[in-house]
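Quick question, first post here. What does this chain look like in 3D?
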Amino acid sequence: MTEQPTGVAGRTILIAGATGDSGRTVARALVAAGARVIAVGSDQGRVDALEAEIPGVVGEVADLTDGDDVLELAMRVHAGIGDVDGVIHLVGGWRGGGGIAGQTNEDYEFLARSFTALRYVSRAFYDDLVDSPAGRIAMVSSTTVASPTAGGANYTAVKAASESWMRSLAQGFAKADAPAAAVTFRVQSLAGLEDLLATSVVDLWSTDAADGRELNGSVVELTA
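> Answer (accepted):
Ran it through. Tokens below.
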């Protein structure tokens, strides 16, 4: 029997929304820990810059809010690299203010892209995560899910929907009796917590977390 790797070394991890500050920090930490990293962004120039900045990263350009684009991404990844062991969802953004009356449709549609991307990407790579001996999917949510405000109603509604989707993924992993885990990180603000997020992502494959069943469905609050 082939001995399975321990920790994240040797795992293939896809980062969705990889070209922002948090994505670059997470990619750097994963590469340093020995993972194979697929960094997905929507802008070719920024993806190229990330590949140059962090040797070993494999860049991919895709519109993660387009279902066909995500399926084509999955086909390229499977053909060129193989199955993935992890998906780190960092597609996000913030718009808010103005109370309930100020929650515009335009702002909602902008924010909802994150949930749309989560649905498409998690479905495209779901079988990979179930079949992996250490499948992991993680996203960054907001502490406002537990304490919504009128000014952030659009934003919090999208984050709540995303957390619900993650719980559904967790139930799917449990039903399949897979050693996989769907984990939600909650932050008040991600600014300044990029290094903590990166460490927490790497730790999803730590020795203590070897069997994802212990992690599956968990919500972890990250604080300074």
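Helices lie at 21-32, 44-53, 67-80, 105-124, 126-131, 153-175, 194-202.
The first helix runs from residue 21 to 32.
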